[in-house]
Amino acid sequence: MTISLESVGFAYETAGRSSPMILRNIDLTIAEGEFLILLGPSGCGKSTLLRLVAGFDHASEGRLQIDGKPISGPGKDRGMVFQDLESALYEWLTVRENVEFGLQIDGVPRQERIERRDAALKMVNLLDHGDKFPDALSGGMKQRVQIARMLAMRPSIMLMDEPFASLDAQTRQILQNQMVSIWTEVGGTAIYVTHDIREALNLGQRIILMSAGPAANIKHSYDVPMDYPRKQSDPLYIDLLERISADIEEEVSKVWQ
Ligand code: ADP
Ligand code: MG
Questions:
Q1: Which residues 6+ apart lie within 8 Å of 68 measured at CB?
Q2: Which residue's CA is the nearest one to ligand 1's atom 21?
Q3: Whole-number mean pLDDT of the chain?
Q4: Which of 28, 73, 102, 133 is at 20 to 30 A from 58, Cα to Cα?
Q5: Can you say whether residue 186 is alpha, beta or left, with left for phi > 0 and alpha for psi between -120 and 50 degrees?
Q6: What residues flank ligand 1, with Cβ below 6 Å?
Q7: Beta pairing class for 17-18 and 13-14
Q8: Residue-level pLDDT at 222
Q9: Taking the C-alpha atoms of 31, 35, 39 and 44 in order, what is their torsion angle to the nearest 10 degrees?
């Protein structure tokens, strides 16, 4: 599915009052099957932009469309993984039940439910942990449950908001590789938010660098024409890393002026 954003602007409304513009004039087209990264300094509006695509919030200006149809709210075509380790899973349900929950709500027949649940758990290597409750899981495992829950719903579009940000570097690296394998296997369009340049380069086919807010915009778009798994020693990797780092530094320094 193709996602298009046209002159999108956004301000939060709280108790009838508007925040300053968080996003302004965002133009972006995301192709079917693309793995797109939203990268930018903390607080620039990455989560906000992802929430607009998810349909949790509505644009104050401009248009968001999926395959030419306006995004008017959340839909089954989109699945989301959140950064928050604490609130995202149902603590009173086992891993299996967490993954099956959405399928149950959708009225998917039992046999199919079990098959889809187990296929999703297998993809994230959690088939042997189905009986556990979330509080018995490591942070990395919790995030894998969230990913399995999304995969079980078979969305055409996967929206991921810094899913590995709170994990240690080694776990993060392993899960990044797993993420690439999953996406290669299931296909579909992915939008992945991160503030980590290396993570962006390990995962993305295209990296959208956002400017620092308020009224954040797209500062630069970088294509990453490299095979997976990405090698950090690749001259292209090093070159992109340097260019993007310099760009981000410029943005962050604006905030501190
Ligand atoms: P990022 O994900 O890039 O760190 P966010 O999208 O979370 O940034 O936030 C962008 C800006 O919007 C920040 O300045 C933040 O303080 C503000 N913001 C986020 N959520 C709300 C809200 N519910 N009400 C008002 N302002 C908000
Ligand atoms: Mg965020």
A1: 2
A2: 12
A3: 95
A4: 102
A5: alpha
A6: 12, 14, 19, 22, 40, 42-48, 213
A7: antiparallel
A8: 98
A9: 50
Report the distance separating Cα 55 and Cα 46, nearest Å: 14
* Structure tokens, 85: 């380790």
Structural tokens at position 59: 């644009």
- Find the length of the chain: 257
pLDDT tens by residue, 84-120? 766 689 999 999 999 999 999 999 999 999 999 999 9
φ/ψ region of 59 (left if φ > 0, alpha if ψ in -120 to 50, else beta) reads beta
Is 255's pLDDT higher than 80? no
User: Atom 23 in ligand 1: which residue has the minimum CA distance?
Assistant: 12
Return the ligand number nearest the Cα of 22.
Answer: 1
The label of the residue with tokens 């300094």 reads: 41
pLDDT tens for residues 149-207?
999 999 999 999 999 998 899 999 999 999 999 999 999 999 999 999 999 999 999 99
Which amino acid makes up residue 223? Answer: D
